[in-house]
Amino acid sequence: METSVQNAKRSTNKIKKWFSVFFEQWELQSMVWPGIIFMIIFNFIPIYGLIIAFKRYTVIDTLETAPWVGFENFQIILNDKFFWGSVVNTLGISFLKLLIGFVLPIILAILIFELRQGVFKKLVQTISYMPYFLSWIVLGGMLINWLSTNGLLNTILSGLGFSIKHENYLLSTNKYWWIAVLSDIWKNTGWGTILYLATLSKIDPSYYEAAKIDGATRFQQIMKITLPMLKGIISLNLILTISGLLGSNLDQTMVLMNNQNQAKAEVINSYVFRMGIAQGDFSYATAVGLGVSIVSVILLVCSNQMTKRLNDNTSVL
Asked: What count of other Cβ atoms lies within 10 Å of the Cβ of residue 144?
């Protein structure tokens, strides 16, 4: 009896202490809780809707009245050649973005950091950030125009003396992956330097001064000081990038995809959108999304374990 009373008093004291700390930090709490409430409403409550993946759901059903079909939707996925085609496209485009687009923001951030002229440095940063703030609707319209038969690219190549066959590059299935990768890199590389530049700004300048005294060149300073200081944030970005390999830029795909290049342009996100919204097969689309999410979590765990080995068994998550 005494033990239960003591436990009740302890729990009451903990609650009082929690409220006292909450009201002492009410300014910080007022900024945090709206984000928490937003996540609960739009990220956690919708998880209940995943049961659609195990039902035959239509617009005239509710979540409770729709009949259960077990793993039937997942069996359909395994035999759907169009889905597996979208998987191949997603992985192909994502791997190219990883191989090329992951390194470029690091290189650009180091180059900007090494610039000593303030005005020119700010100008370079501003120009590199600009494409990020343009929507894919705007950029897509520009690319459609530039890559057309009489577009900017063919005009420039002809002006330089290249004998080319004037073609609309977006109608070529063999060229779409590179168009998607390079346009995504153009849009996001500048913005991707922000985290690296923020980390570089915190490096103690005395490290570089000591390196200069020891006779280290600029390149040696980058290799021995700059890159090791970026190891943590590089590892974190690598984990997030690998875990998102099955994700894809839906906005970019919907703008650049057409009937001619669809065989190479269709990615998982656009396939889910087409099956779920356009064709109304909500159960199938939910099953695809659930499967992709599970694989993404597995990739997240595996990439975290991989980076731990590269960082002396220390996780950045």
From this structure: 16
Q: Would you list the DSSP string of 105-156?
A: HHHHHHHHHH---HHHHHHHHHHHHGGGGS-HHHHHHHHHHHTSTTSHHHHH
Closest among 109, 74, 57 to 226, alpha carbons compared: 109
Residues 6+ apart with CB under 8 A from 286: 49, 50, 52, 53, 57, 73, 276
Supply the DSSP string of 28-54, one letter for each residue.
HHHHHHHHHHHHIIIIIGGGGGGGGGG
Helix or strand or coil: residue 248?
coil
Per residue in 175-219, pLDDT tens?
899 999 999 999 999 999 998 998 998 888 888 889 888 888 888
Rounded Cα distance between 94 and 292, Å, is 14
For residue 71, which phi and psi values (nearest 5 degrees)? -100, 20
Q: Domain segments of the chain: what residues?
A: 1-54, 71-311
3 pLDDT exceeds 70?
no
Digit-coded pLDDT (tens) for 214-229: 888 888 988 888 988 8
Which residue pairs from 222-225 have beta carbons closer than 8 angstroms and sit at least 24 positions apart in sequence? 222/110, 222/114
Instruction: Return the CATH number of the domain spanning residue range 71-311.
Output: 1.10.3720.10
